[in-house]
């Protein structure tokens, strides 16, 4: 069913976004990658996904902190592939500090990349989805879109906001063949989390292995990381016919974190 569809995945040069891009490419989707990083490494990733799955894969360096760039990304994908059928809003950043020590410019950056970018891409992509009478929007929120942790004010606010945006968009397009859902991962071992584990190990004078176990067990009852492959499979499911009447949902993939 997804063969030949076009997918834009923001923040897909590493981690969860790349996992979702690979899963959609595996279904025969044409894929527009996006994100930051070393240009040669990104080109190697782009070429590897194209070769492994035999689909067209392009890359756009749009900065998700800029509303104009977000709109430009959707326009570029529509020009390149003729449509944006699937939009995965995944780009995200983190900053950890208590509210009173939280640098205001980091607050603005987290809200811009994690929340406002999804507004801007959806704003740009919805008219085309409506015209073609099909669309899937998958917003990568977090367990932190459903519950909070200390020292993550901007991240938790952005992810709660993203779930709110997901619900509003779902309601606005409820009577069209377009769905909008959020997925809410718990801990996934990506560069974003690796940085938090290393900071924790340093702050607490622990080994990285001990800090990793502590991080997991504190929140995630399964004591296992969610994998990018599992999140790719969840995104594929949400894009398929079996999920055609699932909309406005926030689906945890968190080893029981938010069941507590
Ligand atoms: P990651 O750091 O591996 O990947 C983040 C991606 O976003 C990268 O491709 C990066 O280049 C891109 N990015 C960052 N700032 C950008 C910008 N301004 N413009 C364009 N791209 C930008 O992180 P990840 O862990 O894979 O996180 C992906 C998403 O999943 C984020 O929204 C994150 O909040 C969410 N998430 C992650 C976890 C986890 O445990 N790793 C858990 C829940 C939710």
Walk me through this protein's architecture:
The chain is globular and about 55 Å long. The chain has helices at 15-26, 39-53, 67-81, 104-132, 153-172, 191-204, 208-219, 228-239; strands at 6-9, 30-34, 57-60, 86-89, 135-140, 178-185, 250-253. Strands 3-2-1-4-5-6-7 form a 7-stranded parallel sheet, sandwiched between helices. The longest helix has 29 residues, at 104-132. It is an alpha/beta fold and 260 residues long. It contains 8 helices and 7 strands, in the order βαβαβαβαβαβαααβ. The termini are far apart. α1 packs across α8, α4 runs parallel beside α5 (153-172) and α6 (191-204) crosses α7. α4 links the parallel β4 (86-89) and β5. 50% of the residues lie in helices and 13% in strands. It folds into 2 domains: 6-187 and 227-255, Rossmann fold (3-Layer(aba) Sandwich); 189-225. The chain binds nicotinamide-adenine-dinucleotide (NAD). The site of nicotinamide-adenine-dinucleotide has 29 residues, from α1, α4 and α6.
CATH class of the largest domain: Alpha Beta
Radius of gyration: 18 Å
Shape: globular
What's the total count of β strands?
A: 7
* CATH homologous superfamily designation of the largest domain: NAD(P)-binding Rossmann-like Domain
Query: What pattern of helices and strands is seen along the backbone?
Result: EHEHEHEHEHEHHHE
Architecture (CATH level 2) name of the largest domain: 3-Layer(aba) Sandwich
Biggest β-sheet: strands ordered side by side in the sheet:
3-2-1-4-5-6-7
| Cα separation of the termini | 37 Å
Number of helices: 8
Give me the CATH fold name of the largest domain. Answer: Rossmann fold
Number of domains: 2
Q: Indicate the percent of residues in helices.
A: 40-55%
Task: Give the strand content.
Answer: 5-15%
* Biggest β-sheet description: 7 strands, parallel
Low-pLDDT segments: none
Q: Structural class, from helix and strand content? A: alpha/beta
Give a list of the ligands.
nicotinamide-adenine-dinucleotide
């Amino acid at each position: 069913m997804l063969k030949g569809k076009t997918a834009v995945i923001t923040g897909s040069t590493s981690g969860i976004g790349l996992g979702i891009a690979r899963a959609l490419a595996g279904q025969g989707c044409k894929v527009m990658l996006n994100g930051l990083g070393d240009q040669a490494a990104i080109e190697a990733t782009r070429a590897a996904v194209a070769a492994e799955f035999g689909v067209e894969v392009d890359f756009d360096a749009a900065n998700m902190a800029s509303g104009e760039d977000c709109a430009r990304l959707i326009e570029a994908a529509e020009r390149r592939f003729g449509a944006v059928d699937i939009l995965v809003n995944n780009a995200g950043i983190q900053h950890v500090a208590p509210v009173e020590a939280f640098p205001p410019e980091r607050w603005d950056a987290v809200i811009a990349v994690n929340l406002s970018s999804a507004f801007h891409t959806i704003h740009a992509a919805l008219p085309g989805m409506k015209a073609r009478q099909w669309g899937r929007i998958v917003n990568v929120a977090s367990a932190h879109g459903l519950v909070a942790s200390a020292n993550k004010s901007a991240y938790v606010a952005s992810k709660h906001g993203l779930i709110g945006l997901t619900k509003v968009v779902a309601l606005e397009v409820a009577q069209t063949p377009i769905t909008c859902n959020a997925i809410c991962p718990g801990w996934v071992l990506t560069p974003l989390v690796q940085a938090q584990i290393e900071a924790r190990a340093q702050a607490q004078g622990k080994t990285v292995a001990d800090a990793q176990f502590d991080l997991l067990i504190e929140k995630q009852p399964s004591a296992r990381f969610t994998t990018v492959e599992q999140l790719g499979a969840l995104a594929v499911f949400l894009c398929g016919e079996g999920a055609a009447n699932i909309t406005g949902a926030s689906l945890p993939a968190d080893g029981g974190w938010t069941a507590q």
